[in-house]
Write a structure and sequence with these properties.
The chain is of the alpha/beta class. Helices cover about 35% and strands about 15% of the residues. The protein contains eight helices and eleven strands. The strands form three sheets. Strands 1, 2, 3, 4, 5 and 6 form a six-stranded parallel sheet that branches. A three-stranded antiparallel sheet has the order 8-11-10, with no helix packed on it. A two-stranded parallel sheet has the order 7-9. A hairpin with a 2-residue loop joins strand 10 and strand 11. The chain is globular, with a radius of gyration of 17 Å. The N terminus is likely disordered.
Amino acid sequence: MIHSFASALLALTLPMILPTAAQTTVRYMPLGDSITEITCWRSLLWTQLQETGYQNVNFVGSMTDENPAGCSIENYNHHSEGHQGYSAVGIVNGNDLVGWLNNNPADVITMHLGTNDIFGGQTTQQILNAFTTLVQQMRNSNPRMKIIVAQILPIFVGSDNTQVQALNSAIPSWAASQNTTQSPIWVVDQYDGIAPSDLRDDVHPNSSGDSKMAAKWYPAVVGAVNTVLGATTTTQSLYGQCGGLGWTGPTVCVSPYTCTFGNEYYSQCL
């Protein structure tokens, strides 16, 4: 099982304050495969952002499928770069992301990729190599890109979940190696807490799975948006860093979370 602490080993903050009307629009691209394209978590995330003061977050991307999963929320910004059947390696080989970002520049990206790579027999290292190229392409498009990478949903088909766990275990250290101050990478654990009953076909989320995914994306997207806007805060939210060698940010967690020691370099709100 991949746990929350493992998904937040980066020295990054997730500030949770509301932007003001004077602040600019932030362009957010949901990037992924069918788990991004034909599911409903985007509608839930968009609604939560709208209802909590983040009307200045504009979803961008070439895909505008009209409610492909029959989502209960139909009136939302449908734009994304969720593409059924696509893999991280395939996107790199096709140089697809370069064109997508040229046509729809972004400030913040969430990436849930790797499922189709695993179905296609790619190794963990091949997937991570593709992730590295995608991050480079994101930064070539926008040197200040804020990047949120998922530890992916489980696959309850055959033995594929063993490789999902291997990939998810490798993602935090890979992300730490790619992280920069100018273009930080957050890791969001979309694996933990997902049961077979949360997936409609052992792969794609159903309504309960969509709700769990949106709830996990939300604090990271808000943190990234606030970072783009230059927002500051004196308290830290769930999973945010609150201590460690050289840390100069907030050391107090929002209630009911407490600052929990991880190692000499990292403590986080749990």
